[in-house]
Amino acid sequence: MSGLRITGGRALSGKIHVQGAKNSVLPIMAASILSGGETVIKNCPDLTDVDAALRILRHLGCRAEYSRGTAYVDSSAMTRCDIPDCLMREMRSSVIFLGAILARCGEAKLSMPGGCELGPRPIDLHLLAMERLGASIEESGGNIILRAPALVGGRIDLTFPSVGATENAMLAASAARGVTLITNAAREPEILDLGGYLRSIGVRVAGDGTSTVTVEGGGSLGSAEHTIIPDRIAAATWVAAVTAAGGELTLEGACQRDLEAVLRVFGQMGVELDWQGNELSVRSPELLRPPRTVTTRPYPGFPTDAQPPLMASALRAQGISVFVETIFENRFRHVPELRRMGAEIKVDGRVAITEGPVRLHGAVTAAPDLRGGAALIVAALSARGESIITGVHHIDRGYENIAEALRSVGAQAERID
Ligand code: EPZ
To answer: Does the beta carbon of 160 lie inside 6 Å of ligand 1?
Structure first.
């Protein structure tokens, strides 16, 4: 198992390129099987989750390659419609392939995605959406088998704006005859990016990025080239890093609109933020104000994925900060690890309260999940002395070449086995 050794107390400086969005490239890689054509995906981040998706595509019979920031998929020779347990276990978000496999093959077989580090991860809304489009669902031996000889457009009312369920609905609707209406759809920027890809292969999609999405499916679909949007959560993580460590960073290729809710909070904390086109310069203040109360919400609210790194940076703030996590049941697993570094944090259910400023000290900590690991990196950068973060495989799922990236902005960081 790999670890990260970070010696804190050094201000950050320089420029960091914001990687392509993990949560955009995964559904688009799933969508690449819809047309039976070729897809070139540019600005594709080099992540273990991307590698897992490539292996799923190859398992399905597609040609799927990745080289220097570009993924290439040829789904013409797709032969299978199942995702085996080992691949499902490796990446829980593999469920995003459900709608596209069903659309392409008329059948889909996945092993039941278990929970994950964030708590139970039901897929009831995904299955509801598939049923609304005419699929039958059978559960046997830990597998879900969906069959839909002919998908027909219909109305899908989501009781929660689930990102994955919205994406699966859009993907299955791409092959459904007639018009599909998705209400209470997720509005995340990644949905808009998926909509852009679907339009480029010939699907008639409208309203993506709003609460009501319509998809007119059943037409012939073609090949496409697509450039992935910047990763707003990776950008938020770098803002948290320089806020905690001190110094000034320039984020290259960030998207101002996607970061509004995140930057509003850092601005309240006294972080200086200046945009020059798609470059954002971030300067950390000597005296950091607490972000007061931060409640995670579906987009355009404050994103749940940015809560852990924000919390770590808020430990340097002068005062009390309250974090209310409304999206996932179990998203404070970074708190015990931060306490090992000297943090004062109280947790009661979905509410965490931090009191600062705290001068963190280095410690051996374990990344509990992807964004919890990001929080430990942020804390280690501001801590006095050396920290060792184990379980870096969690971090590699969502952050490109993390040790090199940290060193490139002046941090003392190295990967250790
Ligand atoms: C996506 O997960 C992201 N993952 C998550 O990012 C992100 O935290 C989440 O959206 C919220 O923004 C990818 O895009 C690959 P949801 P997803 O369906 O689609 C409940 C990261 O760190 N729910 O919007 O799984 C669910 O239990 C990851 O990059 C149901 O009840 O999120 C959760 O409480 C973590 N039934 C809430 O909705 C369902 O059928 C949000 O889930 C589906 C979801």
So the answer is: yes
